[in-house]
Amino acid sequence: MALARALLLALLVSTAALAIDEKPAFDDPAMQARYESLTRELRCTVCQNQTIADSNASLARDLRREVRRLMAEGNTDQEIRDFLTDRYTDFVLYNPPVKPRTYLLWAAPGLLVIIGLGAALMVVLRRAKAAKDNPAALDADNETGSP
Amino acid sequence: MKVRLGVLLPLGLFVVLVGFLFFGLFNDPREIPSPLIGKPAPTFTLEELRDPQQLISTENLAGQMYLLNVWNSSCVTCRQEHPMLMQIARSSNLPIIGLNWKESDYPEDPEIGRTRAISWLSRFGDPYTKIAFDKEGSVGINFGVYGTPETFLVSGDGVILAKHVGAITPDVWRDKFMPLISQGGGSAS
Amino acid sequence: MIPELGHFALILALLLAAAQAIFGLVGASRGNVAWMRAAQPAVTGQWVFLSLSFGVLVWSFIQFDFSVRYVATTSNSLLPLFYRIAAAWGGHEGSLLLWGLMLATWSVAVAAFSRSMPLPYKSRVLGVLGLVSVGFLTFMLFTSSPFERLVPAVPDGNDLNPLLQDVALAIHPPMLYLGYVGFSVAFAFACATLIEGRLDVAWARWARPWTLAAWLCLTIGITLGSWWAYYELGWGGYWFWDPVENASFMPWLMGTALIHSLAVTEKRGLFKSWTLLLAVGCFSLSLLGTFLVRSGVLVSVHAFATDPARGLFILAFLVAVIGGALALYTWRAPALKSEAGFELASREAFLLFNNALLVAATGLILLGTLYPLVMDAMELGKISVGPPYFGKAFLIPMVPLVLLMAVGMHAIWKRSRLGPVMNLLWILLGAAVALALFVTLVVYEEFHFMGLVGFTVGFWLLGSAMVEPIKRFGGWRTLPAGFWGMTTAHVGVALFAIGVTGVESYRIEKDISLGIGETTVLEGYEFRFEGTKNVQGPNYRAIEGTVLITRDGKQVTTLHPQKRFYASGGNPMTEAGIHGRLRRDLFVALGEDLGAGKWSMRVQYKPLIRLIWLGALFMAFGAAVSAMDRRYRARSKVSAAVMTGHAAGEAAR
Q1: Edge to edge, what strands does the sheet with C598-607 contain?
Q2: Does the domain at residues C1-159 carry the CATH identifier 1.20.120?
């Protein structure tokens, strides 16, 4: 049983054969570029963390086909994303949508940098003041620029 | 001992982190909850698996509560679930509608898959009142199916009441489906 | 019989690790010299038995012993010798054993190279390492023994996952583990310092070379993984922000912060508690990574076979080790404040900003990786956080960091003296912008804003890093190794930035189908498909395509992408055909046989991608050079008891 499980896992992981479509989905380079960009941000729902562009799983192939169909029918990128999230939830988007529940996620980079630099600046200012108030202490040791 | 906030912060954050990790251990990160619960079931018109001349559509399914079971003949778990489905078919008057999904993998001809699915049923038993043959796989996608077996409980008005991913076990049947079935006025045992 | 010996050796190793922990920690707190001295042979003994155990495992693989369950699941009769050996760490149990062995190896090294350390301190360090070893060995023996037998034995095994049958990927885990585990040394130093309530900073000088060594191993490990993903997975990518990749990147980022923070603590006795916290943090992130990979909490192609029971054990271990260390920190840190000052544009200030940005970057990756889990826990639904998020988010701390680096590396200790060099830096910035404009508009013939930014930042950093070496060229022999190490590593960062900018801004990928004799053109390179033939490998058969690449009529190369079918089954593997030059890679991967001689394939043009790995190697090399600085190797002439006070009192010259 454990053997079968391990084998199953080995199969799941060994999805290295490339998910290349038969031919370019679209002759129009702009559409093709859109298609390639879209399929690289959509998640394969049966894979271990792969985009539908990269996965050769059968369902990924079907989902690519759906994307092509929707594009050919004139849907916008957002309409195509909505089509998939209506069926599979936001799980299927590698680019998390900006909603109240993801505000923290999207704000985090800026927030963390500001908080970090802010805290560092406060320490630096305090130490700079200490240096100014007590210049003699600074001359006590003779370190210079070597790392 | 005066303890500053900054010093307590790392330990505090760690405790919160461990809490989330602990939760994560009992959670399946790959399971996708269905966004269709409480919404109308997607409409479809497909050929009956066993009789290509007959068409199955959501219109002629309406009016009665039913189970929609997504399966194919290469699915090992479906095979394990099968006796349970046979029992449900025997003991309750809830129709089980099959959705044969992704029977054939590209580039196999779907008709070969049809034949194979039919012989699977004749070998193991056929609990289905009707079986919709999803050759392209798009109906399954409309239902948000990502694996087999998956089972939906659809109300008489065509609203999806529940979805179960994986095999239906007696516990699942009892705890998840039966309460909804009795609520809807249906009967099952 | 022999596998049982391996198992028995593990048990002995566990007992010795326990002895190491007890003798080291209890001996030190009781001042019992005999006990403290006993910690060292315990370390050696533990290492001997772990090596024995690992040797037995490798032997079982070499001898095709399929009665051992782990061998049966990760190897098979056709597997070539090299990969049979590598398979020893290809699965969960074996890789844990490798972890344990690495930990024992680092412990032995610390014991051997620490003559100048006072005995109680050294014993505590070894004691803490012993505790960590006890945790790992217990975990192995109770839940994940690689020596479990299969009764009855199977005639043949499953095979090592074909993805792992590759040289780079065989070396990647050992290098990674050397890095992860290497941070346990800094961790042990930090814990020993906290336990003792030490106020002096000699420990920072002792810890630094160990940290550099661990960091450089981790750098190489991550680089190997990225390089392997590029040429083996067939989609031409080098980083996917997969949870397991992030799990290795976070300790790396924090390790970078730690190396820089140790410099300040060592030099000026400042940021003591912060540095200690970072040291605890790095190893904590290593352990967290182990948890994420083995517990099933996150979805990843890299995850081992997952098991919540194991996950629970590792979580308990995490709580004990990290919780314990953080509790120690909370208790001791307040007493460690120092009051020395430094000016606004001094080296200390820049290093503090460096740390703030690196820790912010670590935090944002942690948040992004765990966000789906957190949302799920709070019943807010499922989301995925992938490259579109991380790619953008990561730039936010990184661009300021690189910009500050270009200036900060010229700062001196204590004082703001950047005036003179700033003029030069402004000129260099102007030159960098001009060069970046040239590269984007003339070389690549396409304006790309982020490309311009990236090239400017990279070129500026490169120029800035070269200022001191060029200025001091005459007396280069007198410069300390630390200086050359720093310069090399910073040059590495610049190359890395330039490489990433080139690839991300100007790469071209095309999915096409070609019949025999048909061509496609990409960036002036003509790719002609010449057909396929069948080839036979040791444990696979393959279809090999031939693609001729020419440019302006002159032949550039012939590539042979393959599609391999391994005898053990599974999906076919793609081996891409790659022609690599520093200025660009040409990449071809086979897709499907469309019949009538036509094949679908993906061709790619990847400018400057090699600079990414070259830059990383420079970083690793820089760390190696720094670690060899004479001041780390000097035997202290002053007795350990005199090592107190701030950096001014240090006599190790």
Answers
A1: C508-514, C598-607, C584-595, C577-581
A2: yes
Question: For residues C419 and C346, what is the distance between their CA atoms, to the nearest angstrom?
Answer: 12
Per-residue model confidence (pLDDT) at position B3: 55
> What is the SS3 assignment for B159?
strand
Closest CA to C638 of C262, C205, C338, C220: C205
- pLDDT, averaged across chain C: 90
Instruction: Report DSSP state, residue B96.
Output: E
Structural domain count, chain B: 1
Residue bearing the bigger pLDDT, C142 or A108 = A108
Cα dihedral sign for B72, B76, B77, B80?
A: positive
* pLDDT tier at C166, thresholds 50, 70, 90: confident
Residue B157 lies in a domain: yes
- pLDDT over threshold 90, residue B98: yes
pLDDT of residue C198: 81
Q: Per residue in B143-155, pLDDT tens?
A: 999 999 999 999 9
Verify whether the Cβ–Cβ distance C334 to B14 is below 8 Å.
Answer: no
Query: In this model, does residue A55 exceed pLDDT 70?
Result: yes
**8 A C-beta contact, residue C219 and residue C175:** no
Instruction: Compare CB distances from A88 to B32, B102, B138 and report the shortest one's residue.
Output: B32
**B14, C299: Cβ pair inside 8 Å?**
no
For the residues A99-127, what does the mean pLDDT come to?
Answer: 95
Given an 8 Å threshold on Cβ–Cβ distance, is B11 in contact with C323?
yes
The residue among A37, A62, A47, A42 whose CA lies nearest residue A16 is: A47
Examine residue B31 and state whether it is found in any structural domain, yes or no.
no
The whole-chain average pLDDT of chain A stands at 82
Indicate the helix (H) or strand (E) that contains B55: strand B51-57
Q: Is the pLDDT of residue C353 over 60?
A: yes
What residues of chain A lie within 8 A of the CB of B33, using their CB? 89
Interface touch A87/B144, C-beta < 8 Å:
yes
Q: What percent of chain C has pLDDT over 70?
A: 96
**For residues C78 and C156, what is the distance between their CA atoms, to the nearest angstrom?**
9
Separation CA C272–CA C270 (nearest Å): 5
What domain range is B164 assigned to?
Answer: 36-183
φ, ψ (nearest 5 deg) of residue C105? -65, -50
Is there a domain that residue B102 lies in? yes
For position C148, what pLDDT does the model report? 87
A22/chain B closest Cα distance in angstroms: 12
Which residues in chain A (76-95) have CB-CB distances under 8 A to chain C?
A: 89-95
Domain positions in chain C are: 1-159, 508-607
Note whether C311 contacts B14, CB cutoff 8 Å.
no
Does residue B1 fall inside a structural domain?
no
Across C94-103, C330-339, C539-548, least confident range: C330-339
Q: In Å, how far is A109's CA from the nearest CA of chain C?
A: 6
DSSP code string of C327-375: HHHHHHGGGG-------TTSHHHHHHHHHHHHHHHHHHHHHHHHHHHHH
At A13 the pLDDT is 37
Over its C-alpha atoms, chain C yields an Rg (Å, rounded) of 26
The CATH number of the domain where B57 resides is what? 3.40.30.10
